[in-house]
Amino acid sequence: xxxxxxxxxxxxxxxxxxxxxxxxxxxxxxxxxxxxxxxxxxxxxxxxxxxxxxxxxxxxxxxxxxxxxxxxxxxxxxxxxxxxxxxxxxxxxxxxxxxxxxxxxxxxxxxxxxxxxxxxxxxxxxxxxxxxxxxxxxxxxxxxxxxxxxxxxxxxxxxxxxxxxxxxxxxxxxxxxxxxxxxxxxxxxxxxxxxxxxxxxxxxxxxxxxxxxxxxxxxxxxxxxxxxxxxxxxxxxxxxxxxxxxxxx
Amino acid sequence: xxxxxxxxxxxxxxxxxxxxxxxxxxxxxxxxxxxxxxxxxxxxxxxxxxxxxxxxxxxxxxxxxxxxxxxxxxxxxxxxxxxxxxxxxxxxxxxxxxxxxxxxxxxxxxxxxxxxxxxxxxxxxxxxxxxxxxxxxxxxxxxxxxxxxxxxxxxxxxxxxxxxxxxxxxxxxxxxxxxxxxxxxxxxxxxxxxxxxxxxxxxxxxxxxxxxxxxxxxxxxxxxxxxxxxxxxxxxxxxxxxxxxxxxx
Lengths: 249, 249
Description:
Oligomer: homodimer
Distance between the termini of chain A: 47 Å
Structural class of chain A: alpha+beta
Strand content of chain A: 5-15%
Helix content of chain A: 40-55%
Largest interface: A-B, 118 and 118 residues
């Protein structure tokens, strides 16, 4: 499994080979063995297989083509609704409509999603995580009929990888993310050292050139994750958390 | 690996066998292959091995004994600081001090943590996730000297499992967490059906009796996750997100 993890890459193009319900359910069941908060399993997953459903979801993911071309789309949600309904039915009053329980549920959903990802890749499936889920959570809530106390966190597109496989993307050296004993803040020298390899990669230099930017960092801050988008999506997310009942007042 | 996942259980008691730096670093490096937001790797991990460091962390985790008895404690953090410092040094202005980028970084940290967990368990290590990290994030920030734009999300205690291994805990049936096409809200009948097995387990009945409660749900809502605690920790978390620079105003 570790060998499989070392070679992993994001897969955005899939063959027409279907992913059986049997395999999908086995993998989701295995993933449910992942740790979660107090064994409350504060998550749900929505499976979208039909073309109409995928086309409805596509705009919320900025029409990234994987949504409509992947055999299966999985939307992983922080879900406190099921637990609260159980409590109500058992003479228990759950005070779970707050930020702390949203974070607990989001953690549960993420551990579940990543455990699924590891198991699925081990079985030869290819995956792509879509970070757009948190941007347009409000739209996805409507499309998937998510009730209060449920918020979508990440989406995975799932299928068998189409050849040729994409190149594996680079990572920062381990030293860049690892701190011993306490956090050692970055200095101009350590930043230069940790980002050198990334900045010198031909694929990243090409990225800077075609976007007419001076540095790789500018591609991220000016084009991919600009301040005004981040702030707009932060407002929307806050609004969604309120509407879904996770923030008082 | 899937067989290992099916058998997984949380390990809270460890042998005295040390976990080598070599193994730990290999597993963290493998875990860094996990998906992350735009390949920005918005996370860091703090390794605590020395007894003094563990004793400092223990109160923030309500003195759960795993913190001081495990050979290694790992604190996984949402970290936007490194990226922002890189951007500043490269004539780029990152507008990352907001809720959306906090969520992106928290997602990155969780996927990284769970990928580490899967790899570590495959190599025979035993782990326990501590959800207390988000409760007392402010204290942990001080102890580990985390700068602005860094927030601890989860903690893992790591070591070799002590025999006898604990029982595997139950999970809800897959149907309880799986929704096809759209969310099918729970009815009194489906709640009864999905929670039946859990409620009938002798270990859970025992749990209800020794806590002098009427239902299992009450053990969670009245003792383990009471409303007033959840609300208090929500306030603290909101304050911490502000202090760490993730919320405007």
